[in-house]
Amino acid sequence: MNQTHPLTTTAFELPGFRTTKSLGVVRGVVVRSRSVIGNFGASIQTLFGGNITIYTDLCERTREEAFNLMLAHAGALGANAVLGVRYDATEIGSGITEVICYGTAAVVEANAPA
Question: What pLDDT does 55 receive?
Answer without folding.
Answer: 72
